[in-house]
Write a structure and sequence with these properties.
Elements: H1 24-31, H2 38-56, E1 62-68, E2 71-75, H3 83-89, H4 113-129, E3 134-139, E4 144-152, E5 157-164, E6 175-179, H5 218-232, E7 237-242, E8 245-250, H6 273-288, H7 293-297, H8 306-315, E9 327-328, E10 331-332, H9 334-347, H10 361-372, E11 380-386, E12 392-400, E13 409-414, E14 417-419, H11 427-434, E15 443-450
Parallel strand pairs: 1-7, 13-15
Antiparallel strand pairs: 1-2, 2-6, 3-4, 3-6, 4-5, 7-8, 9-10, 11-12, 12-15, 13-14
Helix pairs in contact: 1-4, 2-4, 5-10, 6-9, 8-9
Amino acid sequence: MPKPTPKLERTTFITSKELEYFSVKELSRELGSNSVKWPLVLTKELIDNALDACETSDIAPAITVTLEGTMVCVADNGPGLPESTLRASLNYNSRTSDKAHYISPTRGQIGNALKCLWAGPFVYNLEYGNDERGSVTVTTPLYSYEITVAVDKIQQKPKLIPVLLDREFVKTGTLIEIEWKAVAGYIPVEIADFYNSDEDEDKDGEIEDEEVPPPRTFAEEVQFLLESYATFNPHATFYLRRDGQTITVAQPLLPGWNKWRTDDPTSPHWYDADELRTLIAGYISNEKGTMTVREFVKEFRYLSGTAKQKAVVAAANLSGQCLNDLVSNDDIDISKVKSLLKALQVASRPVKAAMMGLIGAETLSRRLSEIDGAVSEGIQYVKVPSEDARPTLIEVVFGVRRDDNGGRRMRFGLNCSPAFECPVQGLESFLQYGLSIDPDAPISMAVHIMRPGLEFTSRAKSMLT
């Protein structure tokens, strides 16, 4: 009688999802960019965070980016990154963000920049420098930590070790130092040419009679990024330090610029019922379920008065109730949410587009002239406000440069934060045909879009719907 064939008793493996951030594929999805661009993308995210921190503390922002060998440093004059926020960001089982669930015209599109920051140098250095280690140093007036990153290959989990450093703290703000092993040899992708269409190509798919501008070096990319920040943030100062010298990229043109800040109450007109339910669920899951509905109402724009708060909860039939009372059968009762949203919107007025942050023709024209050398007499400005429930403010400024070297210089901004590529489908045709801009002219252009709750076509968040 033949012996029975041995059977394999399979083991059910449990693998930590914490390691997902620590791969080229996943980080590329999170950052919306291929790995070559990570140093630039994370520099941008740190500048976004620095500007937000300064604004919410009523501090005129001053941002300095330092390039020294393979080190990239971002420093600000804000209140300093709270140690609790730093430590919370080291937990890859949760997301730490004060922008999640709120619908508002805020900078930054990632929402988990610190998690990407810790993982980025490790994955990048392994990819380009064959170094299985990443390191980021964070210094504030109260502490200095080196965050070292490695991988436990047995447990398949990241190892993030915060080491308290014995070094001089900064007097103000936050200083973040990142070592990118290959940043000195950074080779960016070629600058996109928005005007070339399929009709401009010959049979072999090559552009006819067009000179492709050479790729910018990393230092040139950073300077262009800072110039773009200065264009869309006229209240801030930006410095670039390299080769032992400090360059003042831009001084403030509007020191008291009035814009929407991350600590400004959001408008109930910016939410639909599902979005408001998600926000309420966020409050409940973060141990704020005992907050009264009236206290919740108080957090919205134009509803800080006691009389209006009482009127809203009464109209929604939620007087005396707390957020936990909106839960039914392990879910938030959508009918109650709809009643609350209707009452919120009736009791408040929509926000005008200009209130989100109008830069204006004079300021944008002056910045374009200062940074790119555009001829001031010929600069044109277009403003397109849309006063819908979710207002949109689009500002476009363009002019011909005195120096025709370097090709076109196009800057795009979303809620005061530069975009790395044209974020609007059809904008190329509008620029060429709607505004009659010669695609071969040495032009400089800046396009800025302000809108709460920007919606994107993909997770990469590079193209608006």
